[in-house]
Amino acid sequence: MAQDTVPAPAFSQDQALDHLSELADKARAYARNAKAENTQRAYAADWRHYSAWCLRRGVTPLPPDPQAIGLYLADLASEASAAGRRSRSAATVERRLSGLAWTFRQRGCPLDRGDRHIKEVLAGIRRSHGRPPVQKEALLAADLLRMLGCLGNDLRGVRDRAILLLGFAGGLRRSEIVGLDHGPEETTDGRGWVEVLEGGLALHIRGKTGWREVEVGPGTTPLSCPVTALKSWMELGRIVHGPLFRRIAHDGKRALTDRLSDKHVARLVQATALAAGIRGDLPEGERRHRFAGHSLRAGLATAAEAEERFVQRHLGHASAEMTRRYQRRRDRFRINLTQAAGL
């Protein structure tokens, strides 16, 4: 009678370990992509700051000790004022705590943010240091046209003109602008892509809450048209695949392959706003801090003569209250509930 034979394993032990190692590398790559690059940099900086604080005070950073975290937050909130500068805001302290909580989770040691040592310290910081967020100034359409006039007609000027117009008309964050690709699934670090349609542009953006589609229509003139500006950049820059907005070679005659940093958008807005004389009534140092990439997004929300719900959807806000924060000059007293109640 023939003996039963045991089938040979599909993988040897070494092959199986190699396969699992490859999967682990892929899992780590996916985990890294779960957070935006800027967020990852901020969280890494948060952890370095906390680790240095622990080292100076003889505290072990892992596992997290809620009492030590409470002391760190108190020190963090008062650190700047002790050096003669304005103290950190409650929002800054809470953002730093979020970075630490994320790192603790990644290291398998979740932090209980509801612990009384943390909760009570945070409540005290909010009461002592809470203040409205400092908002960047909105750039309106007339401002933007003046800024566009400060750009050259070379390849760099064509690219930057498309960035400003698309960022304004799309109401985009600076990371969303530079995160666009020419088409879907063309890069691993892209945050969306652009689709050129007969009536305008369809931007497919991946945000914090998922994907959204942003429609960008043509302008009234070629000089103010984001569709024309983007088409010109794609044609002259020979953008047929990969990142949409890229660095330009030193000779200024060709687009390179690597994606622009989102910092370029902030610097571009600041430089052109200064060159155009926007808010010339203010000192140059203050003017420089008034404008950044968010000025484009706030400008659209402020200037758009449309129903609030359409602006909210365009910006991808979850609530109308968030949209109102971007509207720098909305008609606050159009509805007077005092008089409506009979006074």
Explain what the structure shows.
- This protein is α+β, with helices and mostly antiparallel strands and 343 residues long.
- The chain is 52% helix and 9% strand.
- The protein has 15 helices and six strands.
- The chain has a four-stranded mixed sheet with strand order 1-2-3-4.
- Strand 3 and strand 4 (210-216) form a beta hairpin.
- The longest helix is centred in the first third of the chain and has 21 residues, at 13-33.
- It is globular.
- The model has no long low-confidence stretch (mean pLDDT 79).
Give keywords:
alpha+beta; 15 helices
Sum this structure up briefly.
With 343 residues, this protein is of the alpha+beta class.
The radius of gyration computed from the alpha-carbon positions, rounded to a whole number of angstroms, is 25 Å
Distance separating the two termini: 104 Å
Helix content: 40-55%
Q: What profile does the largest beta sheet have?
A: 4 strands, mixed
In spatial order, strands of the major sheet run 1-2-3-4
List SSEs in N-to-C order.
HHHHHHHHEEEEHEEHHHHHH
Structural class computed from helices and strand pairing: alpha+beta
* Multimeric status of the protein: single chain
| Low-pLDDT runs | none
Number of strands: 6
Instruction: Please state the average pLDDT score.
Output: 79
Number of helices: 15
Name the beta content range: 5-15%
Shape: globular
